[in-house]
Amino acid sequence: MGAAAGVLVAGIALPAVGGAGVGLVSAVEDVGLEPRDLAEPPLAQVSVVQDVKGHEIARFYEQYREVVPLDHIADIMKTAIISIEDYRFYEHGPIDIEGTVRALAKNLQSGGVAQGGSSITQQYVKQVLLNAAQTEEEKNKALAPSYARKLNELRYAMGVEEKYSKDEILEKYLNIAYFGAGAYGVEAAAKRFFGVSASELTLSQAATLAGAVQDPNATDPNLGKTSRDRLLKRRNVVLDRMAELNKITKDQAAEAKKARLGYKGTPLPGGCESSTYPYFCVYVRNEILRNPDFGKTAKQRLAFLNRGGLTIRTTIDPTMQAAADKAIRKWVHPSDNPVAAEALVQPGTGAIKAMAASRPYGTRKSRNQMSYNLVADAAHGGGIGFQAGSTFKTFTLLTALKQGMKINDGFSAGAGYTAPDYSTFKNCAGQPIGDPGHTVTNDEGSPGWLTLQTGTWHSVNTFFMELERRVGLCGVVKTAKSLGIHRSDGTALKEFETFTLGINEMDPVTVANAYAAIGARGKYCTPMAISRITDSTGKTTDYRPKCRQALDPEVADAAAHVLSGVLTKGTMAAVGGIGRDAAGKTGTNDDSSSAWFAGFTPDLAGAVSLGDPRGTSKYKLNGVTIGGRYYGSVFGASVPGPIWKDTMMGALRGVPPTDFTPVDAERFGGCGDSCRSVVSVTPPTGDDGPLPGDNTPVTILPN
């Protein structure tokens, strides 16, 4: 070792100033050339995203690399790389004296470090230092053509050779080397260049890859004909060298040279644009990048995802996703101006089971593609969302039930509602925000005597404005917030008197998750996309649902009871139910600017939005053709409702139905102390007996 070091140090001697001579350093101790331990950070590896059943759905990476053991690499590949890069690799120590002497002569001629005489071990060291570099300055230092860098590499190389066997070093080198075309490591390169695994490489293919490592940017076949010609020439150099060293015969070399380059350019898997479930993929990516559970800083979280070689098991269910995709395709075309988006969430866990939209996700400039997450909020790659409309009336209903109202309590609602004065409504800061200059009218339902049930079933705006006044605007806002409601754009909720009419822009994941809490008898769970992560060492971390009891279970039961009538007696009656206990609420905004349906069973909840991303105030859903059908005006039950119904029937096929818990009749079944009187009205009769009609007693309540 000492003799080799002496020769090497001589080989990298500094030229004397003015060219009068060369001063040679002849003693090892003068430069401290002793083994040094090399810090070897884990190689950047591909992170694989899986669905709930373990099927791959996406990949994330900073460097596309698949680490493989040496016995998974073809012998001809090992022979080729050793022949061209370090043919005495198994014979010399960390320093190749013969190579160093050659480098000495070249360096003396050029007056600098023109040739390094690097062994494979030294090249591995350089790659480790380059991969560990965090800044451009560190990267430049790792590549600098200086004697100081060369000495450092040698010290580290001596340490590496003491620590590992030759086979281990070769394995590490083949996994870290860059081959061009975005492929890091021999496995990724074999797939990228030729569409095969490293274990299947032929002589010609192995020689091509071995030739590429010297200058992978200059021979990158992805860059065009000139680069491919360079790579072909470089391949032939490798073949000649292998024949010269008697690793192959001259005939074998000649035959291999006849082969075409054979570059396939197999697309690198990964990224959300190529994912089976792109919108969910975007959600998962943003969940990791913003969640402190996955790293204290944004930089750490990005490295965790793109370099960690993770296996990320998610909550997406392929059967339920297929049902959502099919239903949306049936009702809305990708070419339609309005866009439908849907999320499915599991009650009791918050697990996101599907995220679908009528347009494909992508960043290319295409009219039909969406470059942001239509199904989620801005924090998960989404946009501003659409106003949720009457789906927000559910939060007013819940607040009334929380405050002791019964499902048959009611009052008269007029054709219009105007706040008497500014103090009629107060936000949660106690500020009066009523607007006596604005009158709310009804888009659906008729005014008159209405109860919590009938007012909800027919979605009567004026009824809910008065109900919100009675229970308090702030109470409704707090109920909504307790169920995870927040604006899609991340700004504070707008706490105006029309809050109950859904003036806040929302996303399907948030709305579906809020309704899922009702289906779970008031148990709210944070939306969950990731259930398990296994790192590159095999360590597994399970992620549990984060839940809390947001509602009294009996309040949730009563709300489910009322909302179930929407499907059988209310705005969704024409669409119908799904053959099992289900409940929900339609949502239509002013002049059909956007439309929603949100519904749930004890097993699954879903929300569907429909709007024009060009701007709902300008491009309303009136006189439009959607999915090949013309609509004079679109309501929540026109398109979102049928999408939800078809989705739920497909998603829950084969899932045993779970019934709602019956409403507590003693607590919510009557009108209680608020009843003034109950009068049994005798049904009208005709010549042949009672006339058709509702023969139940009429409940008369005070205003």
Descriptive account of the structure:
- There is one protein chain.
- The protein has 703 residues and is of the alpha+beta class.
- Strand 7 and strand 8 form a beta hairpin.
- The N terminus and C terminus are likely disordered.
Short description:
The protein is α+β, with helices and mostly antiparallel strands. Helix content is 36%, strand content 15%.
List keywords for this structure.
703 residues; alpha+beta; five-stranded mixed β-sheet; five-stranded antiparallel β-sheet; 23 helices; 27 strands; 15% strand; elongated; disordered N terminus
Topology:
Blueprint (H helix, E strand, L loop, with lengths): L1 H10 L16 H4 L15 E4 L5 E5 L3 E2 L9 H11 L11 H14 L9 H13 L3 H8 L3 H17 L2 H11 L1 E3 L2 E2 L1 H9 L8 H10 L12 H20 L5 H9 L19 H13 L7 H10 L3 E4 L3 H14 L7 E7 L6 E6 L28 E2 L5 H10 L7 E4 L2 E3 L20 E3 L6 E4 H6 L3 H11 L1 H10 L22 E2 L1 H12 L3 E3 L4 E5 L5 E3 L4 E3 L3 H16 L14 E6 L5 E7 L4 E7 L10 E5 L2 E5 L6 H12 L13 H5 L7 E3 L5 E2 L2 E2 L7 E3 L3
Parallel strand pairs: 1-6, 3-5
Antiparallel strand pairs: 1-2, 4-5, 6-16, 7-8, 7-21, 9-14, 10-13, 11-12, 15-18, 16-17, 19-20, 20-21, 22-23, 24-27, 25-26
Helix pairs in contact: 1-4, 3-10, 3-11, 5-6, 5-7, 5-8, 10-11, 11-12, 13-14, 15-22, 16-18, 16-19, 16-21
